[in-house]
Amino acid sequence: MEPTRTDSAIPVRAPLAPVPRAGRPPGSRALPERHSVRDQVLAALREALACGELAPGVTYSAPVLAERYGVSATPVREAMQRLASEGAVEIVPNRGFRVAGRSARDMAELAEVRAALEVPSVMRLARALPPEHWDGLRPQADAAVRAASAGDRAAYAEADRAFHRALLEPTGNRQLVAIAGDLHRRAQAPAEHGALPDTDELLADAREHLALLDALSAGDLDAAERIALRHLAPAPAPGD
Length: 240
Known about the structure:
By secondary structure, this protein is mainly alpha-helical. The protein has helices at residues 33-51, 62-69, 73-85, 104-128, 138-149, 153-168, 174-187, 199-217, 221-232, and strands at 59-60, 89-92, 96-99. The chain contains nine helices and three strands, in the order αβααββαααααα. It starts with 32 loop residues before the first helix and ends in an 8-residue tail after the last helix.
């Protein structure tokens, strides 16, 4: 029987940067500093998930992660609880947190829900906004291409979310933007087979952002809808 993998394989990282103390008006109350540390830890853990440093099926203990990041165990546990609420990890009583790989069914269901929310919203915006509006989103699309070209999965995941958020923000529907963002982050969680997209796959994904903007700018809504649906489709699992 294959032994259970543990967190001993995590690359050692430098301690997280200290949170600067900004000046505040006299009489105001300082927010608890641990929340800022938690946010730093959460960002670091998300980057580790995106890069494959935290692997599906592996259980990681909060004290060991805390030591590697140079922080106490409390903000690590809080960050892991947040990731558990997003479905990225599972709580293992008395042991820590196991990275939860997404099954092919999970990915397909997330893609279906994202398409049901995002595509009709973008199409409504395309009918209401002038074509030149979409040129304003090209910096976000270009940032995603640069991250993909560098093979930086963590930077690409962030740029991808930023682009999709910018697509939906003109709806003015904050709940739509928040829910779509949560679904997007869930869809970026590692697949259970553990395979990570290579640079070519990241680039193909990033270039679809540009193709979508080209279609929207040209007023070709049929093409824009096809591209959006293809872009949100789940990637095939190895062997498919």
